[in-house]
Input
Amino acid sequence: MKNCLHAPLFLLAIFAGVLARADPVPQAPLAKEILSTLRKEHPRLLATRKDFDDLKKRVATEPQLKKWTAALFAEAQKTLAAPPLTAKGNDLGVAWATQERVYQLALAYRLSGQKQYAERLWKDLEIAVAFKDWHPAHFLDTAEMSQAFAIAYDWCHDAWTDAQRKTLREALIEKGLKPALEIYRKPEGQRWWAEQATNWNQVCNSGAALGALAIADEAPEIAAETLRESLLSVPIGMKQYEPDGAGKEGPGYWSNGVRHNVLHIAALETALGSDFGLLKRGGLATTGFYALYATNNAGLVFSYGDSSHGAVATPELYWLSRKFNQPALAWYQSRLARGHPLDILFYDERAEKFDAKTLPLERSFRGAEVATFRSDWSDRKGLFVGFKGGDNSAAHTHLDLGTFMLDADGVRWAIDLGAENYNVAGYWDRKRQRWTYYRCRAEGHNTLVINRDGNPDQDPTATAPIIRFASKKQSAFAIADLTPAYAKSATKVWRGVAMLDRSQVLVQDEVIADRPTEVFWFMHTVAGISLSDDRKTAILTQDGRRMQARILAPADAMFSVMEARALQGSPNPIIQTPNFGVKKLAIRAGDTKSLRLGVLYTPLRENEKQPAAPAIKPLAEW
Output
């Protein structure tokens, strides 16, 4: 979408200074200054009337848009005959369902001009209007419903009667903007999501900002204050992505945060003509590549912490592709997109012509401290590995510094167990109880456990930087310094992960301690495991595929197979998710003060010669 408005220089100067300062309560510009460039006509959120007119023309000529739009109208026709959304509960699920209905029917109205879609949408909106509130105690619900009402009010503005507009506007103000202002107006240190560096910050600020922009000409004072506060707050949420755009909370939560962040900025641009400097924050210019590199060719994600394994597809990648001239993001999104209304709105046709062979095969992201490697960009069964250092203190994290995931031949061999049930006792108690659950502990991940004693098995406040990263035509590697995670037990802990000849993966650890130390090495898998007689080689089998894991060093190390559950002496709450069907390949080194441990993974294929094993050398010499 092209911007038709440009904020005056004095306004940009004001916000450049405001956003650059850490002071959470700077001298604020006047309401008339914030809204001085407000586009008066609707629609003005994410797209203007001209943008929608242009989209109609594109739909007629671009095959992908034509296909998606046909599907949109087919689903919208079904919705016309469907009953209104349930009113059994006012929660996040209801907010999401309302939002999806809004985007579907409101876009169908804008593209067709047929009021039947707006009239049907009204039946769903009436239900949410009747709620006592939009559940501000769990403010995500309020934010998502605010976004839904903002888009409905704006995109269908000329279809609503004066009475309907008044009803929607009052609901937005009373149930959306006023609860947001209650948070914004609290003293520093008490402003909840408004001062958190998490995806909640981005979701909540976006919902409040879109709501304010939708009704800004009718309620300028409350809109201006809301917009000012959202602009002051959202850089805090974006900070977690600095400097390279990756998500410390994992790909799933990254997707949620970036989606709302982009909608926030896109709406500011179409309604006010300015991004107020937000495009230069939080590594936004490169953040889309995090999704691209965290996903293997089959759509599986390198997940960690509470994040899920599902594909990270978000239509806002099309918007980022256009904004930063990065057609690789459009190409990636088109591989996974299902034609959401925002896919249609933001679609970048360059997706169809982009050649992925021009992309590097690996990338390292500072901040989140993650790196991924692959054998190529086209083979869905190719070799892929994800590796992280990371920050244990970030939201939604587990004690998983050093963990890795490994895919080959269309199979995920080294897995992540994912989140524990969010409702178990003390799951959000990051001082102690969270770290009693197996899935949150280091022993529940593909990393090391050193001198277990029943306490958290990594320092919950530790960060582990990737200290070296290199990429060549046939090989690549990353090395993370895990020492801070194990400082109470060891003076040096490094882990390196290398892709060799695009056909093998080496995981190598170096541990130095000043006293005899016990080290456990773990890899979780759902594959069948068969050990050689000397227990130095393991053959993993899954879906008719095979993977060899081979210990290259030290000479006395041996594999064992363990259940995916707490070690003896570790915390073991009665109520936690059982890991049925999961085993872990394990190595134990006892009473060691110096350990160099190397495990080589090689996919085994019929009639294919196995590559030679590399010589083990110190990580400092990689």
About this structure: The chain has two domains: 9-283, 369-621. The radius of gyration is 26 Å.
